[in-house]
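Handoff note, outgoing to incoming analyst
You'll be picking up this chain. Sequence as last confirmed:
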Amino acid sequence: MAKKAKAKVKVKKPASVKNTKKTEPTQVTTKPPRIRLSKDQQHYLVNGVKFARMTRVISVLDDGFERAKAAIGEAKMAEYADHGTRVHTITELDDRNKHKAVNAMLAEHPDLAIILASWRVWVEEMVKEFIAIEVPVWSEKYECAGTVDRIAILKGDHRPSIVDIKTSSSVHESAFVQMAGYKLLYNEMVKGRNKAVRTVAVWMPRPSAGDLGVKERTAKKYEEKFLRAVKEHKQLMGQ
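Most recent structure output, in case you need it:
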């Protein structure tokens, strides 16, 4: 019996394309959340959802800070707040290696030079690496949000620390409650060994520019006070 001949199928070659490159497989990524302060500066909006601002939450605690602000007066408080903003801005620019912007600020505000020099010394001596700079954190559990100055791994450590820059004449207890809150919010957003374990305030008081102090408070009582503040703030808001 004769074998059937196999049909030959001609395959048309694709037209050649010059300078073709292999395409990478498509990666599915999650869009980062949109975060901004509300117009009244009292809340954060995360993807349109309102979260109480951290400073508003802890303001319900009576540690003398609010009374001190009232005693100073609105004009002086505004002046101190502007100075604090400038210190935060120039240290952020420096840590991001934005040298031109740093030099521009120093030209306009030469008084910041000695403060920046102190900050640079501390960073050089104490910081292994910055994980994040001016990073927003929020929590659906605690219904509040804020911005952490730095998430850093300090030299000799293997876990991150919450670092907050303070420029007031003294560091009130509410500052440590605030950092404890930041740590809880940050740790809710990360996993495993990335969780922060320490909270450190780097204190550069305005009256004695150039001085720098470091205060660490990681006692459980500050977390407890933050949780109390959350509860009291919700009650005040009628929640």
